[in-house]
Design a protein that fits this description.
Elements lengths: L1 H17 L6 H24 L7 H13 L4 H27 L10 H13 L6 H39 L4 E8 L2 E11 L11 E10 L4 E4 L8 E4 L7 H7 L7 E6 L19 E7 L2
Antiparallel strand pairs: 1-2, 2-6, 3-4, 3-5, 3-7, 6-7
């Protein structure tokens, strides 16, 4: 009886705090569901939404408006707009970080971002969405490239030096390959001379390989997958350009050491273990 009385007192206190109206069993059940999920909501509020607990009452006020007035289309539209506004704020922060390379003292003008969204929504912009995207890309890409050059310039320089020294080694041959920005030089050394057929543009080439960075770090290998051969469809290669170009030169039965400059590799893309502007070294064996 004492436990029941204590629970009833606690329940009354809670109901007063949250203004619950507990007349029937289903009312208590509904209330219980709220209490049971409140701890998860509190964590979500803090960790995911980034709301300071000092503003808990303001959060509760907004939560009540959003829940009770959901049937009001006008109010609901406003609440959804608040959610999107927060996302636009995050978008502006991300753009600032990208443009200014993490310098927290510099930020883009969020009002300009908002104005673009609003004009786009209302159809009052003087340019189309496609034109805007093209203009944005044309301006952001050089900035991204410059930031990457600043961060990974040493990696790029090391690759250039490695290629220059490797080119002088006995048995190393070169072939010039056209790229989007000019010409790059692919290097290879024949380890085993193949006597089989050369692949055509419609061939499927079965290979074994090992890929290394210029410091000797192995980042990929068929040996790590029980020597299961890798198949390249020459019609749709889906490999880096250096690979598709060198496979055209390798008769079946060949085993070559191939050095691929970053222009024919992943370029400025960050592939995890393979950092931007990485020169890559592959041992490739064409089985059939």
């Amino acid at each position: 009886m004492a436990a029941v009385a204590s629970a009833a007192m606690a329940f009354t206190a809670c109901s007063q705090s949250g203004k619950a109206d507990l007349k029937e069993g289903v009312d208590s059940m509904t209330y219980d569901l709220g209490v049971a999920n409140a701890s998860g909501l509190k964590q979500y509020m803090s960790m995911q939404l980034g709301v300071d607990s000092a503003y808990l009452e303001d959060f509760i006020k907004g939560m009540k408006e959003g829940a009770i007035n959901e049937a009001d289309p006008k109010k609901e539209a406003y609440m959804k707009g608040l959610q999107v506004g927060k996302q636009i704020q995050d978008m502006a922060k991300g753009l600032s970080n990208e443009i200014y390379d993490g310098d927290s003292t510099k930020t883009v003008n969020i009002n300009n971002l908002l104005a673009g969204f609003i004009d786009g929504l209302k159809g009052t912009s003087t340019i189309t969405a496609e034109e805007a995207q093209a203009q944005f890309n044309a301006m952001i890409e050089p900035i991204q490239q410059a930031n990457l050059e600043k961060k990974y310039g040493d990696n790029k320089a090391a690759g250039i030096k490695y290629l220059a020294e490797n080119k002088k080694k006995e048995g190393v041959k070169t072939v010039s390959v056209k790229t989007e920005d000019g010409v790059a030089e692919l290097q290879y050394k024949v380890l085993v001379e193949g006597t089989g057929a050369l692949p055509t543009d419609t061939s499927k080439v079965k290979v074994l390989y090992e890929g290394k960075l210029i410091d000797g770090t192995i980042f990929d290998s068929t040996a790590n997958r029980d020597n299961e051969p890798f198949v390249v469809d020459m019609k749709y290669p889906r490999v880096i350009q250096g690979w598709s170009e060198v496979l055209k030169l390798m008769p079946a039965g060949s085993k070559w050491e191939v050095t691929i400059p970053q222009e024919l590799g992943y370029g400025s893309r960050n592939m995890g273990q393979i950092k931007p502007f990485s020169t890559l070294v592959f041992t490739i064996e064409v089985l059939k």
